[in-house]
Every structure is written in structure tokens, then in C-alpha cells.
Amino acid sequence: MPEGDSVWRAAARLDAALAGHELTRSDLRVPRFATADLTGRTTLGVTPRGKHLLARFEGGLTLHTHLGMDGSWRVFAAREKWHGGPAYEIRAVLGTAGHTAVGYRLPVVELLRTCEEDRAVGHLGPDLLGPDWDAGEAAANLLAAPRRPLGEALLDQRNLAGIGNIYKSELCFLAQVTPWTPVGDLPDPGTTAVRLAGAAHRLLRANTGDRAVRNTTGSRRPGQELFVYGRARRPCLRCGTPVREAPQDDRPTYWCPHCQSGPTPPARPPG
């Protein structure tokens, strides 16, 4: 599931393969931009913005893409066979003499003027992995709606950009509150919000390397990389209580009923 750290790694791979090179192939397989041709333009760079990717080209053009829930960019050597999904799932192809970048299952593929990038990403809050990161601003954004459940507030990219469903559950565990806890009901809300923003920044930064599995616990034992996410009915790594799972805003959400205090959704009826 792409989150800010995985988008950051995708941008780094694309930048290494494309930046400074002239495009010899350009194929945007979405109706609106199917006739657009970027061949002959040099890629100036590829940068992440929260969960968004911005590939900039000479002549003042930017290709804006978003990975959504299961999209990906794959980079292949010039003669390497593509693998990442069937051909009908390909939404964008950018090729140079040495590499080809192929975008699979991308829900957003948009060509825009570089000077108008704010139209696509200007609504985003401070980028957890970007040069504009500001924990104080992110905390203030979270606190602006005190009755909103913390899990929903963390996922709102207008508050801080880069958190997905995995980090949402993990950060709520670290804060020792359930994801349904209103932001204003956090213990010492101002201090806790700043600490949460700082923890989010540290966790995403720690996972921008080449590690194969995302890790929030610091444990190197297989199956113990995450505190609660994906661990429904398995023992909590801290107290041994079975982890619970329920939807929040139509997304699976995990918490430990012993380690985390606060409201929880009503139990679902059996069957």
C-alpha cells in the first residue's frame, strides 16, 4: 500500500533513471492526454509531494501522478522485459536511451504546466518528507477540528501529507489512544499533536531506505515489524492482548484494546 515513504522511494528511482536524460519514448494512456508527446524533452527531475509524484520536463511541463491504493512505477533497463501487471493496466510510459519507466494502475495521470503545480498539490499540508516539513503547522492543522477522530485527521492530506492507513494505525498505537478518539480529547492535545507529528516524520524518514518491509517497531524479527496494523486477533507485541480490527472511513483499522484508550466502534454482529 503506497504511503509517503514508498512514494518517496518511487520518486528517487524515477529521478535516478530519468533526470538529465532526453525522452525517446512518451506514452500517456489516458484519454485526456493520449495525444500528448513528451519525446525530445529532457527530464529535469522527479520529486514527491506527500503521496503525489511530480516529474518535471524542460519547456515548463510537469507530469503529475498518484499511486492510489495499488498503483506503481517500475523502472526497467532499455531491453528488459516489463513486469508489473498486464499491458491493459499501464497508464504511462517514459523512456530514455537507457531506461524505461512504466506506470501501472495509476488513478491520476495529468500533464500540466509546471507553474500550475499548485492546482494539483497546493491543498496539501506540510510534507512529512519534504523541505517544507513543519511539525508545529501540522499539529495546528490537526487541532483545528477538535471533534474529528484522530485517525481521520491523520489521513487528511490537508493536515499533513504522507500518512496512509498503515501509519495511521501505528501512530494511534504509539499515542496510546484509539483512532476514534477526538483530537480535542487527546491527553494535553497541543503537546500530543506535536509529538504525533514528530513521530510521523521520524517513522517515514526511517523507512525511506531500501528495506523490503516497512518497520515501525524497530524489531528485526519476522512478523513483528508493525505494532498493530494487519495483526487482527494476534497478540499485541506489548501486552499480549489480541489486536482488534474494524473499519474507519471504509478502511481497515487496528488497535489494542488494552494499550489504547478511547472510544471504539460497536462490535459487528456475527455472521
Automatic annotation (TrEMBL):
Catalytic activity: 2'-deoxyribonucleotide-(2'-deoxyribose 5'-phosphate)-2'-deoxyribonucleotide-DNA = a 3'-end 2'-deoxyribonucleotide-(2,3-dehydro-2,3-deoxyribose 5'-phosphate)-DNA + a 5'-end 5'-phospho-2'-deoxyribonucleoside-DNA + H(+)
Pfam family, one: H2TH
Alphabetical list of PROSITE patterns matching this protein: FPG_CAT, ZF_FPG_1, ZF_FPG_2
Known cofactor(s): Zn(2+)
EC number(s) recorded for this UniProt protein: 4.2.99.18
Region feature Disordered, mapped onto this chain: 249-271
CDD domains in the record: AcNei2_N
Keywords carried by this UniProt record: DNA damage, DNA repair, DNA-binding, Glycosidase, Hydrolase, Lyase, Metal-binding, Multifunctional enzyme, Zinc, Zinc-finger
Entry keyword annotation includes DNA repair: yes
All copies of domain Formamidopyrimidine-DNA glycosylase catalytic, residue ranges: 2-130
Domain FPG-type: 227-261
PANTHER family hit by this protein: ENDONUCLEASE 8
Family note: Belongs to the FPG family.
The protein, known as: DNA-(apurinic or apyrimidinic site) lyase
Originating species: Streptomyces flavotricini
